[in-house]
Amino acid sequence: MSSPHRGRLDLVLDLGKTRAKLLVVDSEGLVVAERHRASRSKEMRGYLALDLDSLADWLEATILDLGDLRQQLSRAIVTSHGAAFALIDAHGLVLPVPDYEFSGFDQRPDNWSAQIGAFAETLSPNLPLGLNGATQLDWLERHFPQEFAMGQLLPYAQYWSWWLSGVAASEVTSLGCHSHLWNPSNGSFSSLARKRGWADRFAPMKRAWEVLGTVRPALAHRLGLPRDLRIHCGVHDSNACLARYLRGWPRSTLVSTGTWIVVMTPGANDAKLDAEVDMLGNVSVRHELIPTGRFMGGRELAHLCAGADPSLANAEDLDRLLQRGLMVRPSFEMQGGPFRERSGSVTDRQGPIELTALTASERASLAACYTAQVTSWIVDRLGGAGPVVVDGPFAENSIFTGVLAALLPDSEVCISIDPLEGTARGAWQLSRWTEPRIMEPRIRSVPAWPSEALNSMHARWLADIDAWMAGAHA
Q1: pLDDT tens digits, residue range 399-418?
Q2: Percentage of the chain surpassing pLDDT 90?
Q3: Neighbours of 349 (CB within 10 A)
Q4: Which residue among 62, 116, 256, 396 is least crowded, i.e. fewest CB within 10 A of its CB?
Q5: Is 430 buried (19+), middle (13-18) or exposed (0-12) by CB count in 10 A?
Q6: Could you tell me the CATH superfamily of domain 241-472?
Q7: For residues 230 and 213, what is the distance between their CA atoms, to the nearest angstrom?
């Protein structure tokens, strides 16, 4: 994807849990250059950590590979996944940045539930592994007390902003992302963060779009970057995606898709939030409370595809499977989502069936249908207002979007048709947030997939979910 570019260029670093992307975008919002690679983790100091050294090497090599484009860069902004925090001093990282999938984070103090306090304060469910940032900080402090006592804390996106600029900052979207570190209602650090002394350890708060400074002189010299390249504070990835819609649609529902499917409902009533089903209070770049639900939809889709290309999903295969009575009961990832405590299965009218008994296109079709069902359940539970906009890779899956539209008959379901995914687009727009002209989101409505067999199966699916929840949360 490329275009003739106009004016100065912008550098966007989209550092996701699954993939890292580097993009160069011109003043009209068109992508001039794009590079990507898989994100990596490895064991360091006895725990699973993000491999920042290899990522830094890749970023430097990729920037050098931009050639003459480097000298046209005027600003840079970072967006990254949540549940990751860095501890730095004047020399760099004090400890490796933990990967939230490290199993050791489940080893918690006996009184941990009492320490984190009531859900009403943080609007953050008590999640497995290291999906709560406070769980990671507690574990590090108990296992590395001397190192942890040194340095300054900052969210993962702002670590890379510091790497670029030398200026340390914190930003609310990562702190307010199911961390137990933030009180979304009061707009301040949580009681836990204050009692443990962590609140005072975080770098100063900045807005996502604020300029921290210019690129480090040594980095500019080594990579051939302009010395006046401005570095913005940066933002959590799902909230970057949301930011691009906030100006025009203060009441809407965003379905941000990728490794996680995150449903964000600005303007909805937070009274519907329920920690038992992994619903939480997110915080927007404007410090607004955003009722949110999510599940690991990208991982669940991959599990059900079992090696099949998701693009093989089609209406004919799905209709045939539904006529046979196939249904997918959640769930297949235990790291989050409303059904994370339940083991998933695929069944027909005779009982369980193995994925290997299905063709590749059948698996892809069933996976798309299932992830749409869970997404629609979350949208309904949150009471999200229309339009419902699907952004990210799932927007290209016509079975996912068609089933979602069929299951949300009272809402207009739209997809982003921007060639740039919402996370990167939102980050780019935040680098221009204070400008009067801003690009309107490019969307189109999608038709519902009419199917009596789908309606019948989904009714059985909902009844099964209701029965399970009545027993699990009795």
Answers
A1: 999 999 999 999 999 999 99
A2: 87
A3: 8
A4: 396
A5: buried
A6: ATPase, nucleotide binding domain (3.30.420.40)
A7: 6
Name residue 94's amino acid.
V
Show the beta-strand stretches assigned E in 137-223: 152-155, 182-183, 188-189, 211-214
Which pLDDT band holds residue 3 (cuts at 50, 70, 90)?
very low
How distant is the alpha carbon of residue 54 from its chain centre? 22
CATH 3.30.420.40 fits 9-233, yes or no: yes
> 């006046």: which residue's tokens?
228
CA angle, 220 then 222 then 223, to 5°:
65
Distance CA 177, CA 351 (A): 39
Give this prediction's pTM: 0.90
Percent of the chain with pLDDT over 70: 98
pLDDT at 219 over 80: yes
Question: How far, CA to CA in Å, does 192 sit from each of 65, 142, 323?
Answer: 45, 15, 52
Contact indicator for 449, 402 with CB cutoff of 8 Å: yes
CATH 3.30.420.40 domain extents, the chain? 9-233, 241-472
Helix locations, 306-392, DSSP H: 315-323, 360-382
Are the C-beta atoms of residues 290 and 283 closer than 8 Å to each other?
yes
Q: Are 278 and 340 in contact (CB under 8 A)?
A: yes
CA distances from residue 87 to 96, 201, 411 in whole angstroms, order as listed: 8, 9, 44
* Mean pLDDT along residues 291-316: 96
Ramachandran quadrant class, 292 (left: phi over 0; alpha: psi -120 to 50; beta: rest): beta
Name 59's Cβ contacts closer than 8 Å, sequence gap at least 6.
13, 22
The most confident of 39-53, 254-268, 269-283, by mean pLDDT: 39-53
CA distances in angstroms from 75 to 69, 221, 250, 474, listed in the order given: 13, 16, 27, 53
Q: Given a cut of 50, is residue 2 above it in pLDDT? A: no
